[in-house]
From TrEMBL:
Protein name: Ig-like domain-containing protein
Pathway: Cell wall biogenesis; peptidoglycan biosynthesis
InterPro entries found in the cross-reference section: Big_10 (IPR041280), LD-transpeptidase (IPR050979), LD_TPept_cat_dom (IPR005490), Transpep_catalytic_dom (IPR038063)
Organism: Paractinoplanes rhizophilus
Keyword Transferase among UniProt keywords: yes
Signal sequence annotation: 1-23
PROSITE patterns assigned to the protein according to its UniProt record, in alphabetical order: LD_TPASE, PROKAR_LIPOPROTEIN
Catalytic residues of the enzyme: H335, C353
Amino acid sequence: MVGMRRSLVTAVVAAVIAPLALSACGDNKKPAAASFKEAPSASAEPSAPPTEAAAVPIELSVTPAAGKKNVPLSAELGLQVSGAKITSVTLTDGKGKAVPGKLRDDGSSWVPGRTLKPKQTYAASVVATSDSGLTKTVTTSFTTMGTPARKTGTGLYLFDNHTYGVAMPVVVEFNPGIKKADRAAVQKRMFVQTSPAQPGVWSWTSSGTQAYYRAKEYWTPGTTLTVRIAVGGVPTGGGRYGDRDRGATAKIGRDFRMTVDNKTKKMTVTQDGKVVRTAPVSLGRPSKPSVSGTLVVMDKLPQTVFDTTDTDGAAGYRTDIEFAQRITWSGQYIHSAPWSVGSQGRTNVSHGCVNVSPSNARWLFDKTLIGDPVTVKGTGVKADYGDGWTPWNLSWNEFVKGSALPVPEALG
């Protein structure tokens, strides 16, 4: 599915929700977060229309209506046309400066390339041209609302010009979460393009605090993801509006996967389909089991401190950790555990994390990318949906049920 977040494109992503308050071997603090066709140029308007009568009359209407006030800052130019095709769209601000934008694929509207400014009058001119060369021009002008007093915070977990693993979902967060009744309007403003094309679908968590975008299968290595989360000024429910637009262009790297089997206490690592390493592991002990499911590397910390005293009180601990790779928000990681080397491959002694030896931890840390998949099997405890980037924990049929918009038949 073609659509129009950490974008925190060149910096850290802001406005993310609080992590799940669950106890695990690591801390539960989150790291910072982070399709259109081109509209014809205004110069495409013919200098003089033909004089002969059109076989089919051109009908063209444009919204917002002329003189409309208090228009949302996310306003699109709604287009209805028959007997012709849209050949030019021009939108200018109060100073006469052109606003960039693109037509939706279905031609139903023209979407400005940036959030409109508050309390400003915009003028639009739309030209439709018939097959016989006749044209019709419709103009309108409208005034936007003031700066919204209440906003929904957003985050995009994607950085510009970064390379990610094949399981990297596009992850957008909302604070507070978006209620079901408001999700369709928000989702309509979340756009993803992939090259080569791999159509995907957005799916929401039950709380509405996260939305994931993925294709049926992992991304093809070398894919380019171009994302625009154009929710700045979009009504999000309860009198709130999206805080800002976010976007990023990123690439997918090689196919690197980790599979952890509780039965054998072993991790198997493949790259481009070939086994490149195996490593003994120790998983969560019975009282603090590791979770099973397909998870994703979300963060990498060469050195950190695991502090569970906030959640576990006197039973908690504070420990220096090396080569930590987060796979759940609730605090499960793959990390170096020199103290459990004797148990690795034999028995489970961790607080839920995947313990590996210092040498294996360093090797993995040097090889992995954010977005690489980690599949954990056989622990008897399934990962909670939303505790980490978990869209791969659902079958495709279940995943698409979370879309707030109809799913194209080819993807359903």
